[in-house]
Specification:
alpha+beta, DNA-binding, 57% helix, 104 residues, elongated, homodimer, Arc Repressor Mutant, subunit A
DNA sequence: GCTTTATTTCGAAAAAACTAGAAGTAAGCC
DNA sequence: GGCTTACTTCTAGTTTTTTCGAAATAAAGC
C-alpha cells in the first residue's frame, strides 16, 4: 500500500530534472517507435555519459524501456506507467469537499 | 521557453518524495477548503520541522498555497497548476508516430 | 581481426536534498 | 502580562544527486 506511493514518488523524482523531463517529452512525442540515444542526445545536448546516466534513471523508474537495435539503444515511453502516474495525482480529488466541484 | 521545462521539472521534483507526495494527495483530496499543518502532520507522521520543510517546498514550487487562520496555517492545492503539469507530460504525444494510436 | 560507431560504466568532486532536535515567532486565552 | 498551542526557522550531519572526462564494451563493416 505504501509501496505505491514510493514507486510513484520515484517516478516523479525521475521527472524532476530539466534534462530528464526534456528526454521524456521527446520520447513520448516519438511514439511507440521510440528514439535512439543518439537522437535524444542531439535534442537535449548534454555529454553522452551524462545522458546515459539520466536515461538509466528513467528506465529504472519504469517510465522508459530500452531495446538494442544494432549498435543503437532505442528508448520508448511506457505510456501505461505514465498514465497511471498522472491519474494517481488526481485520485479521490475533493473527496472531502462538499461544495467543491470547480477543482477536478 | 526553457523556463517552462524548468518550472515543471521543479514541480515534479517537489512531488518526487514519498512524504511530499502523500502531503499533496492529502491536500488535493481535502478540496478547496484545504488542510491545516496539524491535520497534515497527523496524516503523514513526520516531525513538525521536517514537515514544515516539505510544505515550504511544495508552496515554493507553486503546487500549494498557504493562508493563516488563527494560529493554524491552512494549505490548499493549486488545482490549476497541477492540471497544467499533468497535461504538460502528454503534450504533443505521438506527434511523430504514424501508426501509433494506442498510446494516448 | 582491426576499425569505426554508438553507448555505457567508472571514478571523483561539487551541489543539493533529507532529517530532525532545539530555539524562535505569533495568535489566542486566562 | 504570562501561558499554551501551532508552526516555522536555525543548525548540522548524512545521504543522494548531478556532472562529465576517461576508459570500457559491444555490434557492424572492411
Amino acid at each position: 500500500m505504501s509501496a505505491k506511493v514510493d514507486r510513484h514518488a520515484a517516478e516523479l523524482g525521475a521527472l524532476g530534472n530539466p534534462v530528464r523531463l526534456r528526454v521524456l517529452r521527446f520520447v513520448v512525442q516519438a511514439g511507440t517507435a521510440g528514439a535512439s540515444a543518439g537522437a535524444i542526445q542531439a535534442h537535449v545536448e548534454v555529454p553522452a555519459s551524462t545522458l546515459s546516466h539520466h536515461l538509466k534513471r528513467l528506465v529504472t523508474a519504469g517510465l522508459l524501456s530500452v531495446r538494442g537495435v544494432g549498435t543503437s539503444h532505442v528508448y520508448a515511453a511506457d505510456y501505461g506507467a505514465l498514465r497511471r502516474l498522472t491519474d494517481y495525482l488526481w485520485e479521490d480529488c475533493c473527496k472531502e469537499g462538499k461544495a467543491a466541484k470547480a477543482c477536478c
